[in-house]
Amino acid sequence: MQQGVMELLRRSSHISGGNAAYVESMYESYLLDPNSIPDEWRDYFDRLPTVEAVQIDIPHSTVQEHFALLGRQKRRPDAAQHDGVSTEYERKQVRVVQLISAYRQRGHQKAMLDPLGLAEREHVPDLALSFHQLSEADFDTTFQTGSFYIGKEEATLREIVDSLERTYCHTIGSEFMHIVSTEERTWIQRRLDSVRSAPAYEPDVKKHLLERLTAAEGLEQYLASRFPGAKRFGLEGGESLIPMMDELVQRAGGYGAKELVVGMAHRGRLAVLVNIFGKNPASLFDEFEGKAIYQGSGDVKYHQGFSSNVMTRGGEIHMALAFNPSHLEIVSPVVEGSVRARQDRRGNVDRDQVVPIIVHGDAAFAGQGVVMETFQMSQTRAYVTGGTIHIVLNNQVGFTTSRREDARSTEYCTDVAKMVQAPIFHVNGDDPEAVLYVTQMAMDYRQEFRKDVVIDLVCYRRRGHNEADEPAATQPLMYNKIRNHPTTRAIYAQRLTEEGVLADGEDRAMQDEYRSLLEAGKHVAKSLVTEPNTAMYVDWTPYIGQNPSQACDTTMPLSKLREIGAKTTEIPEGVVVQRQVAKIYEDRRKMTAGAMPLNWGYAELLAYATLLDAGIQVRLTGQDVGRGTFSHRHAVVHSQKEGESYVPLQHMAEGQPKFDIYDSLLSEMAVLGFEYGYATTQPNALIIWEAQFGDFANNAQVVIDQFITSGELKWQRLCGLTMLLPHGYEGQGPEHSSARLERFLQMSAEENIQVCVPTTPAQIYHLLRRQVLRPVRKPLIVFSPKSLLRHKDAISTLEDLSLGSFRNVLFDKDALADPEKIDRVVMCSGKVFYELCDARAQHGLDNVAIVRIEQLYPFPEDELREAIAPFVNMKNAVWCQEEPQNQGAWYSTLHHLKHVVRGLKPGMAVGYAGRPASAAPAAGYSALHNAQLEQLLGDALGYDVHRAPN
Ligand SMILES: Cc1ncc(C[n+]2csc(CCOP(=O)(O)OP(=O)(O)O)c2C)c(N)n1
Question: 868 Cβ partners below 8 Å, 6+ apart?
């Protein structure tokens, strides 16, 4: 386009000589940054034809108008009126515009961001006058200011440079020119330019800032003196976080927000708990003294969550600090999930009533991959939360690792945020007013654009990584500097005294007041609501202390089930369904009528549909869940005509609960973390994450280890999340066979989770219903099938759904017909059952019973005993699995099997029939896979695999 436009401009009879040069450079500036040139010129270039339309003439009147304007602008009293001089002036004018643009692009690199002054302020060539062919000799020349000098059309170059330095290179470094949206960029630019990045705050605002800094410093000092050497991951050096958080809460409240969910790591957490959330200092001191009473296995004090209500200028606001493990950053998606659940609960589609705030460490933010995943989720349909305020508590060191050479390759620790074009405000933590200003701007940006924004609070760490560490051992120069560096509070108090804002003794009085409150063990968060509005909480009491093995009635009258089934297959006429999908829906109609056996996909959808009918929300996410990786679900159909999608389960009845089904981005870790956050916030819903293949869940292992399996025992936080993990040895190679059952079983203890391997459509139907109809909220890990989705024998009837329930153990009905014939009992889980049945039939074996254990944890010993007790002539008991011996359920289940078998037949061993131990989950060659299968079936059923069947 550029060449074409230039040509067009040149050919215009009105543009010649110096004028053309001026317009050309103006146009170049426009291409670089449309906001860097005066509005009229931007509009003009915006309206220029594209290269294809370049032959079309620009109306002469338009060009004339602009040159009339230009003429007015250039005829300065100090400019001589002959052509040469005015051309030179015009050139300079353009250079000034380019200089302004350069400051916006790169001013942050020169800004004074480091309170310690250790980071050398960079020499940024683009900001030198000479780079733009300007010099100090031009200082007193007056130029047009374009969109920079808001409210002032022209200024001397000296004024312009002074203002640029103040706006872009002082204690705030703003990165926003990477944002593609002109509207957003202009918004930020105007905010910064209008007050030169430094608004004049009223004395009471300044005093409040100092009071909050006093709180931050006061708590750490108090803890240091009362509990010297105790680990608390103090905030010292980053005290500005407290006024920042305080402002975020107040400003969010002012916008009408009702809830805030905060995620943060160890650093400064105690200060936030006490000074922002209003945790009673006395109970914190009890924890330091080991007096606190914990339930379950508990957790350290700087991982504990908390919630409270505080009063803001816009009303009461409920705040939750998420429980988090030591694994840095993994709490981020959990916070997002919790926020989304709250927004959904409120029906807050504008996402302005619940706001996520996440505090990061600089090393963790730059290093942990889940940060990128969480950003990538931030605007997707399934996971959007309307923008997160990210605060990086950038103390310039990670444990002992220095920031530049080792901690990262990026320029800033915040660079990852640019991938979603978030604005990034770097701010010097020793300038509390600048901190306040960027905080206000960040919250305003979030509420205006509903997108993520980052504040990089550049500060330092006064002590070691924790209070027992000696930091000078690894960062000698930095700590030499820190030792002599006054605290942020002291610097600001001095500034306010000099400004005359503080009267004599006021500073001391503030400190004394805070300390005496602490000593009295009183609340120090002034806006805490002592009698909170309980309507803002969800009542979890119905789910607490429930027996996880309690029975559950999941039956439903057949007629009602048929009625619901019919609705799930209704597709409006206008939606033209693809041929295979139409066949699936047609088959479902037949299944509803009882004309066809019911398959897995339909049973699963009926579980959702019946729950919706019972008023229960269902949410299902994961990669390709709409169709289903194995094409069995087709819960979302796509019209072949218009391409739009239609979800029958969203059209079951007027005012039905939400049925959310979203294909996820290609992430496991952040997505599973998000769903954990959602499920721990919303008890009365079926929340499901499905892995594409079960083995991919290991990308989310941290979420599984740190939250799903241990969260309840560490933090007493219930979670009813369901994970569907496709699992089964189909000869597809080492990947995609195993969802690593052994890992989940190894993590099972204290009734923390449920591990199930359903093998029939009726079983998955009842299992999913049981998960939410029982008042038990425990994570459910389902090892779901692949080939069984279409297996001729893995079928059920509508009656099985209507009348049955989930059975932890499936008895062998055929064998029970004549139990005395049975001398061999094979116990198994999952798909291998069908292979065992086929082999038993092929070999004509009538002495073998095959019992399926469909729930492996909590292990159903009583039901297993009941299933095999009738086989009084049992001589062999065998566990059969398709997984290798070191994997699958064998080792973690053996003690239960032995206990049951020996209870019936004292001294009897339990044999193993399965693949030999293996480093990889499965064989890479299908011939080997088949040979192993034949062998394990023979071992289980007790025949010689080398002899042909009868
Ligand atoms: C995933 C993970 N890896 C390693 C650690 C160990 N660790 C704890 S704090 C820390 C340094 C964090 O540095 P930074 O993010 O800058 O936060 P800071 O402690 O400086 O506030 C490390 C490596 C951890 N907690 N989590």
Answer: 825, 827, 849, 851, 874, 877, 900, 901, 904
